[in-house]
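> example.struct
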């Protein structure tokens, strides 16, 4: 006998937040429920007047107990509803996906109506990353090759892998799992890096961005294999690099460096502590050596701790300095230290910029707000002893929409040194 539908009622504040469009409900905001629930169940939320409020994916083991799928009037979650939701997400990428750009984010979690799920496209390969165990039942029940029956509920109306196959026509779909999901996935026969569709088991995939070739480590790489969210800033770096010396701090796989080389930089320096990252950057540069500008640029690599190396780096020596560190605040209690670190990094980077050159400083720390990051960076520039002209503040790309405050993690400031 099937259990009754899981029903939740929320505190007044949480009810108001959901009604206004916020996609999260924390466990301490659930005032009442008719029975215990399983991860992945779709719960119905009723308001204080017993009227339908929303549908959401439930997770009893997480502080984030409910991720909203739909609010407003009641709907039936069926295959057509999910297909339309996916097509709506893809329509928002119509200006991104082009013949010259085959790497982009197709689904960005809550902001595209697939809470806790990301789908990135790299050429004919899709990478599906789950950030909540609520999706595991659906993935296990539709995986290829079949990992066995799921003991978790599947999401009504959704056969995710067949849907992605039908709409996006990939040759391969790879599963990636966040750390908080990996243990639960193992019990369902799911593993990080496994194929859910297709038989190609190559660890990396080559895709294109603005006509440049890059590799994405879809099986073991960070996130889904490449940082697609910096596309706009990389494009700007290419525009600014002609004839200059470029320093790419925290260079990782060299995306900024390749764009700078094609843009006409005479020298590009990668600085990263990871030999694996530097090797990836070399491969990405080599993928584009057929372009005369890339082949003609001097490519220098330095393996070192960025902060320590910058302390002793030649002053006023680069025409463009890029500061794109990994997240410095993965948790709220790290926020104050991160703000201080961003200021220190901006101070060190600014000292390396030649007169008339530029600094591009970026942050991907969600716990540090845009205002806090900009204030820290601007303070460092003011304290540098030289004049700066702020040229640009950038945020999220169209394929990385941020529909609520907690999703707004990416920010960047570009400034030119006067003189």
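> example.seq
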């Amino acid at each position: 006998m099937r259990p009754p539908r899981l029903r939740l009622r929320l505190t007044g504040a949480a009810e108001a937040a959901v009604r206004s469009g916020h996609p999260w409900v924390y466990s301490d905001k659930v005032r009442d429920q008719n029975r215990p629930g399983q991860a992945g169940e779709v719960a119905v939320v009723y308001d204080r007047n017993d009227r339908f409020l929303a549908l959401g994916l439930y997770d009893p083991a997480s502080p984030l107990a409910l991720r909203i799928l739909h609010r407003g009037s009641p709907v039936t979650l069926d295959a057509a509803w999910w297909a339309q939701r996916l097509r709506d997400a893809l329509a928002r990428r119509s200006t991104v996906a082009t013949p010259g750009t085959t790497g982009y984010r197709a689904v960005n979690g809550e902001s595209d109506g697939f809470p806790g799920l990301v789908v990135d496209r790299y050429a004919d390969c899709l990478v599906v990353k789950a950030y909540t165990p609520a999706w595991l039942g659906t993935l296990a029940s539709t995986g290829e090759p079949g990992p066995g029956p799921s003991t978790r509920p599947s999401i009504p109306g959704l056969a995710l892998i067949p849907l992605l196959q039908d709409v996006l026509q990939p040759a391969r779909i790879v599963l990636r799992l966040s750390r908080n999901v990996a243990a639960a996935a193992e019990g369902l026969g799911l593993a990080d890096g496994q194929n859910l569709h297709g038989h190609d088991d190559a660890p990396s995939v080559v895709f294109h961005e603005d006509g440049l070739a890059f590799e994405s480590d879809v099986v073991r790489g960070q996130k889904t294999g490449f940082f697609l969210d910096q596309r706009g800033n990389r494009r700007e770096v290419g525009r600014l690099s002609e004839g200059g010396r470029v320093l790419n701090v925290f260079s990782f796989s060299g995306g900024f460096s390749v764009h700078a080389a094609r843009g006409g930089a005479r020298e590009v320096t990668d600085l990263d502590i990871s030999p694996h990252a530097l090797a990836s950057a070399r491969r990405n540069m080599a993928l584009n050596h057929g372009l005369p500008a890339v082949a003609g640029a001097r490519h220098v690599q330095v393996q070192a701790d960025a902060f320590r190396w910058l302390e002793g780096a030649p002053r006023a020596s680069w025409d463009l300095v890029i500061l794109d560190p990994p997240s410095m605040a993965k948790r709220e209690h790290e926020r104050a230290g991160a703000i201080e670190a961003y200021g220190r990094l901006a101070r060190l980077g600014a000292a390396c910029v030649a007169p008339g050159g530029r600094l591009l400083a970026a942050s991907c720390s969600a716990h540090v707000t845009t205002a806090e990051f900009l204030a820290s960076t601007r303070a460092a520039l003011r304290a540098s002893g030289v004049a700066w002209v702020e040229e640009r503040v950038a945020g999220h790309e169209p394929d990385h929409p941020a529909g609520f405050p907690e999703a707004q993690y990416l920010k960047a400031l570009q400034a030119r040194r006067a003189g």
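> remarks
The chain has twelve helices and 20 strands.
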